[in-house]
Amino acid sequence: MERLLVLVRHGQSEWNLKNLFTGWKDPDLTERGVAEARAAGGKLKDLKLTFDVAYTSALSRAQRTLALLLEELGQPDLETIRDEALNERDYGDLTGMNKDEAREKFGEEQVHVWRRSFDVPPPGGESLEMTAERVLPYYRSEILPRVIAGERVIVAAHGNSLRALIMDLEGLSPEEILKRELGTGAPIVYRLSDDGSIASVQDLKD
């Protein structure tokens, strides 16, 4: 029985391009983001992978990435479950602010703490720890049981919601996960054992 879980970060968004804190705002993909999403589907097609169910966030950049990817795979009508539990980390008062301007306003060290510490949230927002507190219960109750049962599952989401998942899957420390960079539109293919642990992992980044 194959227990397949594929994670993919959405393609480049308009706010990624503008270097803005995005969080729960809902910009669309850029042309490059569309190409990244299609390329992700192509990489999975090359591996002859198909899926039984897809999960994504409540945000359109992840949903559109998934839709484009599934088109490339020839599975445009795949059962797709959308839930805000998989949304990006909420950046609170930083949302919509240019990252360079934020450094000028608050100081480089403070912005670095907000972005790269595990448990310090920006004003009005979420830390990575808080993001994990909503992502992981959803994963364990909704997604993992389907993988364990032998379904092939793909999750299209965001840098930080996926970091929370990867931290749990790979048993990483807060320091290790904060150093983990996830490329836009780069699938990570996990094959799991019957207890949910990793049997193998394949990162399809360029």
Automatic annotation (TrEMBL):
Superkingdom of the source species: Bacteria
Q: Where is this site: Transition state stabilizer?
A: 158
- Molecular functions (GO terms): phosphoglycerate mutase activity
* Keywords recorded for this protein, A-Z: Gluconeogenesis, Glycolysis, Isomerase
Instruction: Indicate yes or no for the key word Isomerase.
Output: yes
Known EC number: 5.4.2.11
What the entry lists under InterPro entries is as follows: His_Pase_superF_clade-1, His_PPase_superfam, PG/BPGM_mutase_AS, Phosphogly_mut1
**Pathway annotation:** Carbohydrate degradation; glycolysis; pyruvate from D-glyceraldehyde 3-phosphate: step 3/5
A Pfam family this chain is assigned to: His_Phos_1
Write out the catalysed reaction: (2R)-2-phosphoglycerate = (2R)-3-phosphoglycerate
Name its GO BP terms in alphabetical order.
gluconeogenesis; glycolytic process
Q: Which residues bind substrate?
A: 9-16, 22-23, 61, 88-91, 99, 115-116, 159-160
Q: Which residues are responsible for catalysis?
A: 10 (tele-phosphohistidine intermediate), 88 (proton donor/acceptor)
What is the annotated role of this protein in its UniProt record?
Catalyzes the interconversion of 2-phosphoglycerate and 3-phosphoglycerate.
NCBIfam families attached here? pgm_1, PRK01295.1
Similarity section: Belongs to the phosphoglycerate mutase family. BPG-dependent PGAM subfamily.
Give the quaternary structure: Homodimer.
Q: What is this protein called?
A: 2,3-bisphosphoglycerate-dependent phosphoglycerate mutase
Q: Which organism is it from?
A: Stappia taiwanensis
Organism classification? Bacteria, Pseudomonadati, Pseudomonadota, Alphaproteobacteria, Hyphomicrobiales
Encoded by which gene?
A: gpmA
